[in-house]
């Protein structure tokens, strides 16, 4: 197979490197940043410096591809996905865009394309677990998802570093959170309903509402669902302060006769503070709690993933957990193990038990292990 990975940041490069180890696919990495591509030297990966926001350029670089990985920043994600599908290419997508990917379902079906969307950690691994767990319940009543990637070393003021586009992080803080309560979709502000939670080996983290349910809002009929982002305590309050004074506004203001968006200014200031530096290590936490009924008894499944920076490979945990999930999606398609056409969210894949088992075994082989607790 010819596999093209669009985007060579920390996550995109982890995907390309992992796929290159198979020695049975031709891997091409594409990024506008040549420095990012240089990190892939020595892995047998073909590197192309190109701006894939240009339609003609995108079509040219994926022309010979069998499978494309869409790992570009969220601002480019939806349009890139649409253009990949229009080119008739199967795709694994991890871009964090605001638009509903199912708007492209008809286009994907018409082009005989399988598009595995939101194939990261959460959404991603969480959805896969939810889909595969359905056979264990007669009825699911409640779903809770908690997820976060954090630096091992806590540094003031924000105690946070990002392995993916910082612009996508800010979107998590400003995009309204969609939840399901008593069967109805409701909207709550991002960063709201802060609570403290304890995790083994990690300690106390805070959780707050974020818009991470995404496809689950449309594909499941669970009457109560919520997704929360995890950070170190007091992080949400600091971000809320920036938000309340208008620094995340996308409306132009005039400053010394120059029009500027506050969000562009604060992004410019925050990005260097949030960027992973050489020697920085991180960890990832994902907790999924599913409650329901089986044979007239109340029951609960709790999944827990805690993963750390890989000292041997130098790959960050969030890049591992996100990237290896996407890489297993590529392998699933390359091995013709999943053939559903159209937009396919991870919960669809999870409902196919053989596909779910294939992916989870692949993650476990990469030391990404998920514990399962019944009660």
Explained architecture:
This protein is of the alpha/beta class. A hairpin with a 2-residue loop joins strand 13 (about 255) and strand 14 (about 260). The chain has helices spanning about 10-20, 35-40, 55-60, 75-85, 105-110, 125-135, 165-175, 215-220, 235-245, 260-275, 315-335, 345-350, 355-365, and strands at about 1-5, 25-30, 45-50, 65-70, 90-95, 115, 140-150, 175-180, 185-190, 195-200, 205-210, 225-230, 255, 260, 280-295, 295-310, 340-345, 370-375. The longest helix has 18 residues, at about 315-335. It has two domains: about 1-120 and about 315-370, Rossmann fold, CATH 3.40.50; about 125-310, Dihydrodipicolinate Reductase, domain 2 (2-Layer Sandwich), CATH 3.30.360.10. The chain has 13 helices and 18 strands. The protein has a seven-stranded parallel sheet with strand order 3-2-1-4-5-6-17, sandwiched between helices. About 35% of the residues lie in helices and about 30% in strands. It starts with a strand and ends with a strand.
Number of strands: 18
CATH fold assignment of the largest domain: Dihydrodipicolinate Reductase, domain 2
CATH architecture label of the largest domain: 2-Layer Sandwich
Query: Total helix count?
Result: 13
Binned strand content? 25-35%
Helical content (DSSP H or I, runs of 4+): 25-40%
Q: What general outline do the C-alpha atoms trace?
A: globular
Q: Report how far apart the termini are.
A: 44 Å
Number of domains: 2
Q: Which ranges are low-confidence, i.e. pLDDT below 50, for 5 or more consecutive residues? A: none
- Mean pLDDT over the residues: 95
């Amino acid at each position: 197979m010819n596999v093209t990975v669009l985007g060579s940041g920390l996550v995109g490069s982890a995907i390309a490197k992992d796929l290159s180890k198979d020695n049975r696919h031709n891997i091409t990495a594409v990024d506008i940043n040549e420095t990012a591509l240089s990190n892939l030297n020595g892995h047998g990966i073909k590197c192309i410096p190109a701006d894939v926001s240009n339609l003609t350029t995108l079509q040219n670089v994926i022309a010979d591809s069998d499978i494309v990985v869409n790992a570009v920043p969220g601002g480019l994600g939806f349009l890139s996905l649409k253009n990949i599908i229009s080119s008739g290419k199967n795709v694994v997508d991890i871009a964090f865009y605001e638009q509903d990917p199912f708007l492209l379902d008809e286009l994907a079906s018409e082009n005989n394309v399988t598009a595995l969307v939101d194939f990261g950690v959460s959404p991603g691994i969480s959805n896969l677990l939810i889909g595969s767990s359905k056979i264990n319940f007669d009825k699911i009543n409640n779903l809770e998802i908690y997820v976060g990637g954090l630096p091992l070393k806590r540094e003031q003021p924000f105690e946070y570093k990002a392995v993916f586009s910082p612009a996508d992080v800010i979107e998590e803080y400003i995009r309204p959170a969609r939840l399901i309560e008593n069967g109805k979709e409701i909207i709550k502000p991002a960063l709201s309903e802060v609570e403290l939670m304890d995790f083994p080996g990690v300690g106390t983290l805070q959780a707050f509402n974020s818009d991470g349910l995404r496809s689950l809002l449309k594909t499941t009929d669970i009457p109560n669902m919520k997704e929360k982002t995890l950070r170190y305590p007091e992080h949400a309050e600091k971000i809320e302060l920036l938000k309340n004074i208008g620094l995340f506004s996308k409306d132009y203001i005039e400053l010394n006769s120059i029009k500027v968006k506050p969000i562009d200014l604060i992004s410019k200031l925050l990005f260097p503070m949030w960027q992973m530096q050489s020697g920085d290590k991180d960890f990832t936490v994902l907790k999924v709690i599913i409650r329901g009924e089986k044979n007239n008894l109340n029951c609960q499944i709790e999944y827990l993933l805690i993963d750390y920076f890989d000292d041997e490979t130098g790959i960050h945990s969030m890049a591992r957990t996100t990237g290896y999930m996407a890489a297993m999606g590529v392998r699933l398609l390359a091995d013709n193990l999943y053939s559903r056409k159209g937009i396919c969210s991870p919960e669809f894949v999870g409902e196919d038990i053989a596909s779910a088992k294939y992916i989870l075994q692949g993650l476990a082989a990469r030391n990404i292990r998920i514990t399962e607790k019944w009660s």
